[in-house]
C-alpha cells in the first residue's frame, strides 16, 4: 500500500509524511527530492532554466515511478495535481491524503521562504490565494481523505490520519 500526501506548498506534506512513515514502519519518499536526484540540480535552478512545463514533465515521470514502487509514504510537490494524469495515477495506485490548509495559514508558515519558486513574487499571499483557488478542487478530486491541518501539532495530524485510515479499513485497528 502506498499512502500519498498532497496539498499546497507549506501544508506539511514532507514533515507529516516522515512522521507517518515512522509510525507505520514504511519508507518515506519526497517527490521533490526524487526529482532533484533525477535532475542533478535543484528544482529552483531547473525551473528558472527550463520553465514550469519541463519541470511538470519530469515530475510526472517521477510520480509514475514512485507509484510503481514498494509500500511507502510519498509526499508530492504542491503542484503535482495540476496534471490530470498525475491525479489519476495517484488516486488509482495509492491512498491519497489531502492536507488542507487555508492560504492565510500557509502564508503565516511560508512568509520567509526564499526557496519555493512560485512564491518569489511581490504579493505571496495573493499568489497563495490564487493557487489555492485553482488547486483545492484538484486536490479534492485526487484525495481519498481530507485532513484539515489548521494548527494541530505534527503528532496530532499523524494520529488524525492513522485514525481515518483505520476507520476506512485501509489500516488494521490498533489494539
Short description:
With 175 residues, this protein is of the alpha/beta class. Helix content is 55%, strand content 13%.
Q: Could you explain how this protein is built, in words?
A:
With 175 residues, the chain is of the alpha/beta class. Helix content is 55%, strand content 13%. The chain contains eight helices and five strands; from the N terminus they run E-H-E-H-H-H-E-H-E-H-H-E-H. It has helices at 13-24, 31-39, 43-50, 52-67, 84-93, 103-110, 124-142, 154-167, and strands spanning 2-6, 28-30, 72-75, 95-100, 145-148. It has a five-stranded parallel sheet, sandwiched between helices. Helix 2 crosses helix 4 (52-67), helix 3 (43-50) crosses helix 4 (52-67) and helix 4 runs parallel beside helix 5 (84-93). The protein is globular and about 50 Å long. The two termini are 21 Å apart.
Provide the descriptors you would attach to this structure in a database record:
175 residues; alpha/beta; five-stranded parallel beta sheet; 8 helices; 5 strands; 13% strand
State the end-to-end CA separation. 21 Å
Q: Provide the β-strand percentage band.
A: 5-15%
**Rg calc:** 16 Å
Largest sheet: 5 strands, parallel
Category from helices, strands and their pairing: alpha/beta
Give average pLDDT, whole number: 92
Q: Please provide the count of β strands.
A: 5
Strand/helix succession: EHEHHHEHEHHEH
Helix content: 40-55%
Question: With helices defined by DSSP (H or I, 4 residues minimum), what is the helix count?
Answer: 8
Q: Biggest sheet: strands side by side, in what order?
A: 2-3-1-4-5
Unreliable spans are none
Indicate the overall shape.
globular
Amino acid at each position: 500500500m502506498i499512502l500519498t500526501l498532497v496539498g499546497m506548498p507549506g501544508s506539511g506534506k514532507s514533515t507529516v509524511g516522515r512522521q507517518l512513515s515512522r509510525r507505520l514502519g514504511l519508507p518515506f519518499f519526497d517527490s521533490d527530492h526524487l526529482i532533484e536526484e533525477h535532475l542533478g540540480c535543484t528544482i529552483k535552478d531547473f525551473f528558472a532554466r527550463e520553465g514550469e512545463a519541463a519541470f511538470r514533465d519530469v515530475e510526472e515521470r517521477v510520480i509514475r515511478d514512485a507509484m510503481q514502487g514498494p509500500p511507502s509514504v510519498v509526499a508530492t510537490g504542491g503542484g503535482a495535481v495540476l496534471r490530470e494524469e498525475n491525479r489519476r495515477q495517484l488516486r488509482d495506485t495509492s491512498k491519497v491524503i489531502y492536507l488542507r490548509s487555508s492560504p492565510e495559514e500557509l502564508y503565516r508558515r511560508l512568509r520567509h521562504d526564499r526557496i519555493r519558486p512560485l512564491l518569489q513574487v511581490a504579493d505571496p499571499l495573493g499568489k497563495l490565494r490564487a493557487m489555492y483557488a485553482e488547486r483545492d478542487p484538484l486536490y479534492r478530486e485526487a484525495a481519498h481523505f481530507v485532513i484539515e491541518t489548521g494548527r494541530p501539532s505534527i503528532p496530532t495530524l499523524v494520529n488524525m490520519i492513522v485514525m481515518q485510515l483505520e476507520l476506512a479499513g485501509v489500516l488494521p485497528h490498533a489494539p
